C-alpha cells in the first residue's frame, strides 16, 4: 500500500514536476494527477514521468485527491487553493510551495476551509532561476530545507501530515509562523533578489562582455522570471523594504569608508561579510 | 625548442600555480621558477608539478628569467616588479595578474624600466574566492579573457609578447588602456564585490541557517580574502565609488517602486536586470 492514494499537483513547472517525479520514483503515491493551464507543459511533465494523469481542469484534477499541492505563482495560490478546496474530497489536505506565506495564509482563514479540508502552507528552499518541467528532478528536495508554516488555527494532525509529505520527498522540515517565515526570507532571498537585479540592471551594457565569474554569481538570480519575482516581493513588501534598507545602510558604510580611505574600516566591513559567508559555506 | 627558456612566477597561489602548471603541462617553458615568501606554498606548488625550481629570493628567481609573471597581491606588485627588473636579464619582460591596472602602470613609469626591461600589465579574468596552489589547475585560463593593458610608452613587441604568452595558455586576449580596464572592472567586478560583501554582512546571523542557493550565489565572492579585496577597491577607488553609486541609484528606484506599490515599474526594473543577465548567460 502506498503512502498516498491520489496526489494532485496544480502547476507542473520545475517544482511541481519535481514533486511528481519524486512521488512516483519513490513509490509514494498510487496516482499523481497534474493540473495545468497549458497542454504542452502537462505533456512534457508526463513524458518526464512526473504524472500518471493530467488535466487542464482543476475541478477534475482535485476530485479524488487526498492531498493537493499548489505549485502556481504566488499571486494565484489563494485562488487555486480555494478552487481545490471546493472540489476535493471531504477532509483532504492542501499545501503550496509559494515563496511568501503570511498573505496567503491570512487570505485562507488560517487554513481551516470548508468540509474539513485544511490548508497548511509550505515553502521548499529549492528550485532555481530555471523554469519548466523539463528541468524537473526527483532529487530536488533531497536534504533541502522545507519551511512549513501553520497558523494558530491549524490542526496538529494536518501540520504533521504536510511535514511527513516533505520528509518522504527527502527534505528536512522546519516549522515557522507565516510571519517569521516572511521576515527571514525577505533577508535571505527576496532582498538579495532585488540587489542582484539592480546590480545586473546597473551594469552598463558596454561592460557586460567583461563580466566574469564574480558578476555571474552575484547576479545569477536576476535571470529568474520577472513577473514571478514581482509577485513575491510585492506580497512581502514590508519585510523586503526593511531588509533592503538594512543592506543599503551596510553598503553605504562601506562606500563611506572607501570614500574616506579609511583602510581599517574597509577591511573590517569586508571581514564581517566574509565571516557570514564562510559560516554558511557552499 | 620551447617557446620560453626560463619563466619566473612571483607568488605561487591559485593563479601563479595555474600559470606554472599550464606552462609545464603544455611544454611551453624549459624552466619554471617559483618565487614565494613561504616555503610551504612553494613546496605545495612543486608537488602539484607547477614549478621546476623554487626559491624564496626574488633576486635569485629572476636571475635567468626572460619572462617574469608577478602574481602577488595588488599592493605588492609595483615593489615586486621593481625588484624583478633589477635582477632579471637585460631585455627581459615582466607582466602581472593584478585586478587593478592604472595605479600600477603609472607607478612603473608606463612600463619602460631599466636595461630595456619592460613591464606590460595583464589581468586574467580567472580565479575564484579560493586561494592557494592546491586549487591550481592547468586549464584555468582556457577560453578565459585576459585583459592586457599597455601604456602609451609600451613598445609594440613587448605588448605582442605578453599577449602571445596568454594565448599560449589558452586565453582570449583583449587590449585596453589601464584606465579603461579599471573603469570597466569597477562595474563588473569591484563594485559587485562590495555589494556581495555588504549583503552578506547585512544578513542577520539568526537568518543565515535559512540561506539557500540564491543567497549563496549572490554573496559567493564575499568569501574572498578581505585584505586582497581591500587593496583592489582602494587602488581603484574613484571608479568603484562611481559604480557603487550607479548601483545604489538603481536599487533605490526599485525600492521606491516597491514602496509605492508601482507594480508596472517594479516589473520593468526586474525585466531590465533579467535582460542584462540573460545577455551574458553562464
Helix amount of chain A, in percent? 40-55%
Oligomeric form: homodimer
Total number of β-strand segments of chain A?
9
Span between N and C termini of chain A?
39 Å
What is the mean predicted local confidence, pLDDT of chain A?
96
The helix/strand series of chain A, from N terminus to C terminus, equals EHEHEHEHEHEEEHEHHHHH
* Separate helix tally of chain A: 11
Task: Report on this structure.
Two copies of one chain form a homodimer. The first copy, chain A, is an alpha/beta fold and 282 residues long. Helix content of chain A is 50%, strand content 14%. The first copy, chain A, has eleven helices and nine strands. In chain A, helix 6 links the parallel strand 8 (145-149) and strand 9. The first copy, chain A, is elongated. The first copy, chain A, starts with a strand and ends with a helix. At the A-B interface, helix 7, helix 8, helix 9, helix 10 and helix 11 of A face helix 7, helix 8, helix 9, helix 10 and helix 11 of B.
Amino acid at each position: 500500500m502506498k503512502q498516498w492514494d491520489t496526489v494532485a499537483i496544480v502547476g507542473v513547472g520545475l517544482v511541481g514536476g519535481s514533486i511528481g517525479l519524486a512521488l512516483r520514483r519513490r513509490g509514494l503515491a498510487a496516482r499523481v494527477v497534474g493540473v495545468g493551464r497549458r497542454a504542452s507543459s502537462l505533456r512534457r511533465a508526463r513524458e518526464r514521468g512526473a504524472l500518471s494523469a493530467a488535466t487542464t481542469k482543476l475541478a477534475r484534477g482535485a476530485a479524488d485527491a487526498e492531498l493537493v499541492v499548489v505549485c502556481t505563482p504566488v499571486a494565484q495560490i489563494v485562488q487555486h487553493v480555494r478552487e481545490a478546496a471546493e472540489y476535493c474530497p471531504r477532509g483532504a489536505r492542501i499545501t503550496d510551495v509559494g515563496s511568501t506565506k503570511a498573505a496567503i495564509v491570512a487570505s485562507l482563514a488560517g487554513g481551516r476551509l470548508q468540509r474539513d479540508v485544511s490548508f497548511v502552507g509550505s515553502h521548499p528552499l529549492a528550485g532555481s532561476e530555471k523554469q519548466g518541467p523539463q528541468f524537473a528532478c526527483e532529487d530536488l528536495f533531497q536534504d533541502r530545507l522545507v519551511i512549513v508554516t501553520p497558523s494558530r488555527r491549524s490542526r496538529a494532525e494536518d501540520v504533521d501530515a504536510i511535514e511527513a509529505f516533505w520528509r518522504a520527498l527527502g527534505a528536512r522540515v522546519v516549522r515557522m509562523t507565516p510571519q517569521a517565515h516572511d521576515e527571514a526570507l525577505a533577508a535571505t532571498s527576496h532582498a538579495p533578489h532585488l540587489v542582484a537585479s539592480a546590480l545586473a540592471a546597473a551594469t552598463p551594457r558596454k561592460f557586460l562582455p567583461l563580466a566574469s565569474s564574480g558578476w555571474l554569481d552575484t547576479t545569477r538570480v536576476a535571470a529568474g522570471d520577472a513577473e514571478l519575482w514581482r509577485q513575491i516581493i510585492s506580497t512581502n513588501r514590508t519585510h523586503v523594504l526593511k531588509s533592503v534598507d538594512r543592506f543599503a545602510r551596510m553598503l553605504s558604510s562601506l562606500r563611506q569608508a572607501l570614500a574616506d580611505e579609511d583602510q581599517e574600516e574597509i577591511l573590517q566591513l569586508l571581514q564581517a561579510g566574509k565571516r557570514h559567508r564562510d559560516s554558511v559555506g557552499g
